[in-house]
Write a structure and sequence with these properties.
Structural class: mainly alpha
Number of strands: 0
Largest sheet: none
Number of helices: 12
Shape: globular
Helix content: 55-70%
Strand content: under 5%
Length: 293
């Protein structure tokens, strides 16, 4: 289908970069750059999906006087979506990379980084993550700017959801980082954080993450319903927030952290009370527990 052929450069970008990074870091058993590689993957793939037609004209077809348009020349929806994904990628990537450097590595990879085939698989999984989660933006970028519908009330609500969720995630990360720094300075002796947003959800940063991609998907839907796209294209793009929620709530986010907490603090009455009274995921859930609600 034409849509999928237009996405081929995006697919090549997502998997190409992670393949290069795997070739560099797998032989070194070096996981410190894994999260940063993911963020760079989002940034490079987003920019390529936006500028590919112009890059092709200028550098492949060598059309005389072909230029790269200014970012502000794209449709308002494209500007919002691309600015959102670039800002999210830059912030999260630098945050996770600096954390990995301070910690001297990432404990998730303590064993697997010494298994080249399995470690390579993680880099390829990251390429798949970059491709599928950013799909709403990449698809919107294949639509010529003049063909985008004007922004409406639903689009403004979607942008508001994205902004509020991003702020929610940033505040949660900041609160936990501050809590750790104060613990290192022996300003408190708490075993785990229960204050701020961590008092309304045991994983508020992940809640913010799901909201970020839900907002971007909703903002993309107005353009993805255009006749330029196959019917149901906006539903296909819905894989972005669904995959984000599934990975964080059911696979690589909440479950290992909950198991780790139980292993460290399982017999502590305060941990048991925290789990009983604070929802594991959605802040509006009425009770805590051991599974997402």
């Amino acid at each position: 289908m034409p849509l999928f052929s237009r996405l081929l450069p995006t697919v090549a970008s997502a998997f190409g970069l992670q393949s290069v990074l795997a070739l560099i870091f797998v032989p070194q058993a070096n996981e410190k750059f894994y999260d940063l590689g993911g963020s760079i993957g989002f940034i490079s793939t987003t920019l390529l999906s936006l500028y590919y037609p112009h890059l092709k004209l200028k550098y492949w077809d060598r059309v005389p006087y072909a230029t790269l348009p200014a970012f502000t020349s794209f449709a308002p929806r494209q500007i919002l979506l691309n600015a959102a994904i670039l800002a999210w990628s830059a912030r999260l990537g630098t945050f996770l990379f600096s954390r990995a450097l301070r910690a001297g590595g990432d404990s998730r990879f303590d064993e697997v980084k010494h298994k080249p085939a399995a470690f390579t698989g993680f880099w390829m999984a990251q390429a798949t993550w970059v491709l599928l989660v950013g799909l709403p933006v990449y698809m919107v970028n294949t639509l010529p700017p003049p063909s985008h519908p004007k922004l409406g009330p639903l689009d403004l609500l979607a942008a508001g959801l994205w902004a509020g969720s991003w702020l929610f995630e940033i505040v949660a990360d900041h609160q936990k980082t501050s809590w750790r720094h104060r613990k290192e300075k022996k300003e408190h002796d708490e075993k785990f954080i229960t204050s701020g947003l961590w008092g309304v959800s045991r994983h508020p940063n992940y809640v913010g993450e799901v909201g970020v991609w839900t907002g971007m998907w909703l903002l993309s839907a107005g353009s993805l319903r255009a006749s330029f796209f196959p019917k149901g294209a906006w539903l296909i793009a819905g894989v972005s927030p669904l995959l984000t929620w599934f990975l964080l709530a059911r696979v690589s986010g909440v479950p290992p952290l909950e198991r780790s907490g139980d292993k460290k603090f399982g017999t502590d009455p305060r941990w048991q009370e925290y789990k009983r009274t604070v929802p594991v995921f959605w802040p509006w859930s009425k009770t805590g527990g051991d599974s997402t609600q």
